[in-house]
Design a protein that fits this description.
Elements: H1 2-33, E1 43-46, E2 57-62, H2 65-76, H3 79-84, E3 87-92, H4 96-104, E4 110-114, H5 115-121, H6 123-127, E5 129-135, E6 138-144, H7 153-156, E7 160-164, H8 170-182, E8 191-195, H9 198-207, E9 212-215, H10 221-224, E10 230-237, E11 240-245, H11 251-267, H12 271-274, E12 276-278
Parallel strand pairs: 2-3, 2-4, 7-8, 7-9
Antiparallel strand pairs: 1-3, 4-11, 5-11, 5-12, 6-9, 6-10
Length: 288
């Protein structure tokens, strides 16, 4: 009887070990068959082929796709860039993680970002980021269709407010959320609705999808909206700034990037990016 019990227990132990072994083998088989998912970052553009035998890549970071699409072909054929670098990589950032990764870690040689980003990360001191061109500061507004918005808790309570889905946008996301928080309003006190662009915000307001939008006052707004129904919520908002990493005092590159930035501004379809101030313009640079 004792021998039978020992035999029975041995069978149970063997069966359990077999099941456990199969489970472990299955886990590792599945684990090894699942591809590693890389971190999700912004879209990356590069030259169709190497521009020289140099192994270093010229890294650019922007958050506006139209700027990236205009800059890439200009950079890929630029004589200074082709002399100093072997390729160009333009990253289109989509969120704060992208900006943190490329600016805080000093990855980008050239970047188009808000000044508060560089200031917050102390990137100008650590990596030598120098402001070489600037687009204008602007004001952020609550904009309504039929009445002037009030900055009170009672007025905004329950309102449908359109903001941008991008946390890095000051006028369309950061500022309105800051204002609401300062008034003691949370997302369960107002109906925040998220959109992908300032153009979409205006469409939603005109269509009656929202009561208020948070945005800037742009070219053409006077044709469809009324200035009587806007209320400033921050003035001014820091505009976009072009920064070049100048740790080695690369003046040839600095002058060339200023020329490229001016060319982009001269041909950009958006009024905001058409207006650019070149800072300490190179003496030998021509003004068209």
């Amino acid at each position: 009887m004792s021998t039978f019990r020992i035999y029975s227990q041995s069978k149970k132990i063997l069966l359990a070990l077999t099941i456990f072994g199969c489970a472990v083998a299955g886990f590792y088989q599945n684990f090894l068959s699942v591809p590693v998912i890389p971190p999700q970052t912004g879209q990356i553009l590069s030259c169709p082929e190497a521009i020289s035998t140099n192994r270093e890549t010229f890294d650019v970071y922007v958050t506006e796709s139209s700027i990236a699409e205009m800059a890439l072909p200009l950079l890929c054929k630029d004589p200074v860039v082709t002399r100093q670098f072997g390729n160009v990589r333009v990253t289109i950032g989509h969120n704060d993680y992208d900006t943190f990764r490329y600016i805080n870690h000093g990855v980008s040689h050239l970047a188009l970002v808000k000044s508060n980003v560089v200031d917050a990360f102390d990137a100008d001191r650590i990596y030598g980021y120098e402001n070489i061109a600037s687009h204008a500061d602007y004001s952020a507004y609550f904009i309504a269709l039929r009445e002037k918005p009030e900055l009170t808790k009672e007025y905004l309570f329950g309102k449908r407010i359109g903001i941008l889905a991008y946390p890095s946008s000051r006028s369309g996301h950061i500022v309105p959320k800051t204002v609401l928080k300062s008034l003691g309003l949370q997302e369960d006190n107002v109906a925040l609705q998220y959109y992908n662009s300032h153009k979409e915000l205006r469409r939603a307001l005109l269509a009656g999808e929202v009561d208020i939008i948070s945005s800037y006052w742009g070219k053409g707004d006077d044709n469809v909206l009324s200035r009587n129904y806007i209320t400033a919520i921050e003035n001014p908002v820091s505009g976009m700034r072009w920064y070049l990493k100048m740790q080695t005092r690369n003046t040839d590159l600095r002058c060339e990037m200023q020329k490229l930035i001016q060319e982009i501004a001269d041909n950009h379809p958006k009024n905001y990016y058409q207006n650019v101030v070149i800072i300490d313009r190179c003496e030998n640079a021509t003004i068209e």
